[in-house]
Amino acid sequence: MSEENKSYTIRPLDASDRNWVAHFLDQHWGSTKIVSRMKTYYAHLLPGFVVERVDAPDDAPPAGLITYHIEGKSCEIITLNSLEEGQGVGTLMIETVKAVAKENGCKRLWLIITNDNLNALKFYQKRGFELVAVHRNALAESRKLKPQIPLVGLDDIPLRDEIELEIML
Length: 169
Hints:
- The chain has 169 residues and is an alpha+beta fold.
- It contains four helices and ten strands.
- The strands form two sheets. An eight-stranded mixed sheet has the order 1-2-5-6-7-8-10-9, with helices on one face.
């Protein structure tokens, strides 16, 4: 599956991508280990997609990366990073994962963000996701699985809660 959006190409991750994905996640998430609703994922081993600029040299960094996990009739977005904001990269990744989820019989696409990530909250709501739960103080438990989760996040907001968003497919 390869789709184009303006000057971007999106393609599925393959085994040869795992090393750079691990490095990318270490840089942007502090680890390849991601905790969501008390489940641990090693995101560099998950399926996902990379967005690249059509005119970029081979050694250029990606414009975006998304990983996901399908379980039963649900597909969870585990990580999403757009390095070229406002260009449609994030939307392209969501729409691509949404199509994969539908192809796999999923009825729900969902994700978790932390309470400090107000930009992500706006971004996802503009794309049809609805806030379905606030899991109060969930990060205290998550830190038992991933101690690297900081106490303070964006804009000096204490990191405490997980916010669950979903879109029905």
